[in-house]
Design a protein that fits this description.
The complex is a heterodimer of chains A (about 160) and B (about 180). Chain A is an all-alpha fold. Chain A has two domains: about 10-105, Cytochrome C biogenesis protein (Helicase, Ruva Protein, domain 3); about 110-160, no CATH class. Chain A is built from seven helices and no strands. Chain A has helices spanning about 1-30, 40-50, 65-80, 85-95, 110-140, 140-145, 150-160. Chain B has two domains: about 1-30; about 35-180, Glutaredoxin, CATH 3.40.30. Chain B contains five helices and seven strands; from the N terminus they run αβββαβαβαββα. In chain B, the strands form two sheets. Chain B has a five-stranded mixed beta sheet. In chain B, β4, α3 (about 105-115) and β5 (about 120-125) form a beta-alpha-beta unit. The longest helix of chain B has 22 residues, at about 5-25. The termini of chain B are far apart. The chains are: A mainly alpha (about 160), B alpha/beta (about 180). Chains A and B meet through α3, α4 and α7 of A and α4 of B.
């Protein structure tokens, strides 16, 4: 009896997992687009992976089950059929939903920090390392040991960090 | 002095962290800025909800500013917004156009019958195609369109009395000043 009872949560969990899996599988199956060949499907998958779902913003258009994402996938498909290029399709969505729909934000004034900030921090760090090493190698060892705190401070600083 | 550098570095990080928290409590990270502000509203031709034979177009609506309020019977936040529209709708000073978004007409009509109809006119977009042109990504959303058919203001999420006072009314007042 107790063993059977203990199994209930497990069974429930299993049922839940299965239900979720089915949801995902059926969502893929419900939304079949009539691709004419593999190349078109690959292009579509590639394109929708670079576009963000507006509803669940951590998902791309290809993976999202949101209703709007489905609509936008169909729209992207229709635009492809109309012979629009990838850039034109992206521009179509940017015109309506702003740069937000792009997973790769364009390089422009407001995104310079985003694009080059990490590089700037890396360079700053490298500069600190270079300066510290130079000071340390330039300072003669006996002088460092013998004199006051003022002269030692650059080396100490490096040690403390 | 140089021993204090790590401490100041730490203070800087604390300040940055505090700023991040402060910023995020005041800004909705999910809000997508509309690129349509100050651009002509997209051309649309949508049937009226209560009489699908009649079509409403952007051109037909030119000449007077109006509000487009995107709603649906399935939308929970629209239910929260609805009483505000019922009480404030008349006092806003511009016609209120309901934009029924991806909804069953019967359910939309029943919803309006149950909660009241604050709209002078309701247009229906069952497929949501035109809504893509408007950059709609969730209901409720509200657009202020001026007499020349240009979108002047957009609210994403429910209108509240506070938002109406702070954002919508000044935007409408600005339109009035422009009008000859």
């Amino acid at each position: 009896m107790s063993a059977a009872l203990r199994r209930v949560p497990f069974a429930l969990a299993l049922a839940l997992v299965l239900a979720l899996c089915c949801g995902v599988l059926s969502a893929q199956a419900i939304d079949p687009l009539p691709f004419k060949d593999h190349a078109e499907e690959t292009r579509f998958q590639h394109l929708t992976r670079e576009l963000r779902c507006l509803v669940c913003q951590n998902e791309n258009l290809a993976d999202s089950n949101a209703d709007l994402a489905r609509d936008l996938r169909h729209q992207v498909f229709d635009l492809m059929r109309q012979g629009k290029s990838d850039a034109e399709i992206k521009q179509y969505l940017v015109d309506r939903y702003s740069d937000f729909v792009l997973y790769d934000p364009p390089v422009q004034g407001s995104t310079l920090l985003l694009w080059f900030g990490p590089l700037a921090i890396l360079l700053a760090g490298a500069a600190v390392v270079v300066v510290t090493i130079r000071r340390r190698s330039r300072a003669p060892a006996p002088a460092t040991a013998g004199t006051g705190a003022n002269e030692r401070s650059p080396t100490d600083e490096g040690d403390d960090w | 002095m140089s021993r204090l550098v790590p401490f100041f570095g730490f203070l800087l990080l604390v300040a940055l962290f505090g700023f991040g928290i402060w910023w995020n409590t005041r800004h909705d990270q999910r809000e997508v800025p509309s690129p349509l502000i100050n651009k002509p509203a997209p051309a649309y031709a949508l049937p009226k909800l209560d009489d699908p034979a009649q079509t409403v177009t952007r051109e037909a609506m030119l000449g007077k500013p109006y509000l487009i309020n995107v709603f649906a019977s399935w939308c929970v936040a629209c239910g929260e917004e609805h009483p505000v529209l019922m009480s404030e709708g008349q006092r806003i000073g511009v016609p209120l156009v309901g934009y029924n978004y991806k909804d069953e007409p019967d359910e939309a009509k029943a919803w309006l019958a149950r909660h009241g109809n604050p709209y002078g006119l309701v247009i229906a977009d069952r497929e949501g195609r035109t809504a893509i042109d408007f950059g709609v990504y969730g209901a409720p959303e509200t657009f202020l369109v001026d007499a020349r058919g240009v979108i002047r203001y957009k609210r994403i999420g429910p209108l509240t009395p506070d938002v109406i006072e702070r954002e919508l009314k000044p935007a409408i007042a600005a339109l009035r000043k422009e009008a000859p």
